[in-house]
Amino acid sequence: MLKLDDERKSTVNSIKPVTDYANYNLFQMDIRYEYNLIQIINEISTYNHSEHPILNDQIVSAAIFREAMGIPGKIDFNSFGCTAFKMVDNNTVRMGRNYDFKNDTSCMLVKCHPKGMHSSVAFAALDNIHANHLDNNYEKYACLAAPFICLDGINSAGVSIAVLTLDSEPVFEHDDNKSTIATTLAIRAVLDEADSADHAVRILERYNMYATGGRDYHFFILDADGNCRVVEYIYDDESGNRTFKSIYEVKSYGHKEELQCATNFFINYIDKVAPGKKNGIYGHGKDRYNAVLDIIDKHNNNCGNDEVWEALKASAQLPGDDATSNTQWSVVYENISALNPFSDFNATAQIALKRDFRNKWSYDSLKGIRKL
């Protein structure tokens, strides 16, 4: 029988259902144990050496579960599709995010407040840890890994981040002078540490990146001042070498525009991407990208909460066979920095499940969660 310490028991006991749909639902939990992200990073780094790298998803899963609950476990690192974008209204910055994936999943709202770091609220797909229904102890215990499998979130400094899949070969860097981080661990590092979008970029730049799930990804990052960055690992030559790059403006057909949106194609190669096509290694999703920008243009770049939801509806995906079909959740983050960013904060996030935009829930870290 698995033996948990009191903090982990308290964490498991904090799990509560929010919605009551027939099959897949939103749950919430409060992470009350002191996790050690660096321990996980150090463990997986030992398997990545430039001359003989053997790191794989199984090793990452085992390291995460050893930290979370003391025994190895299995995580399915699936293809995280999605759309993410920035909108601003009267100096209020918001990030909209659709999480798209063909397999249906329940969702966990994960509250973290690590000592000496930023508090955060983030969302994890429970199907990735085989815990969709939380009707037995195994599934509940597996949720102890939730801090390390979040796919989007916001912290008390007003920094939000989302991961989005690409169609290129998964990046796997081998600089022996750097530790190695995996896709969802990078999200946790940013949420725990980042004070701004630029700081988030510096955090990611200090690591080798190992892209999990056999897929490639980029990261959309936004802060309370409206600074927006996309981190990509671009092809810098025909040999297939990859280079870390932080992008803050879109260069398209010789023009430079403010970066406001990302879907499932390289922003750096936007000139090579057309709507409604796969576009090879450069990616797809230009139609959703254009749909979001059309709404921003329609409202003269003055977009409040209603306009964010309008864009989320316009870019939501129906179920299908493609990995980036089937919107699982849609969320709006309000990028507000707390007066004391190292304490609990008045984070706000609104969420709808599976394109049911008539029913939304609002999370406020001071007041809890309620139906709108």
Automatic annotation (TrEMBL):
SUPFAM superfamilies membership: N-terminal nucleophile aminohydrolases (Ntn hydrolases)
UniProt xrefs under InterPro entries:
Ntn_hydrolases_N, Peptidase_C45_hydrolase, Peptidase_C59
Enumerate the UniProt keywords alphabetically. Answer: Hydrolase
| Molecular functions per Gene Ontology | hydrolase activity
A Pfam family per the record: AAT
Q: Does the keyword Hydrolase apply?
A: yes
Annotated Peptidase C45 hydrolase domain ranges read 91-234
List the protein's name: Linear amide C-N hydrolase
> Which species is listed as the source?
Absicoccus porci
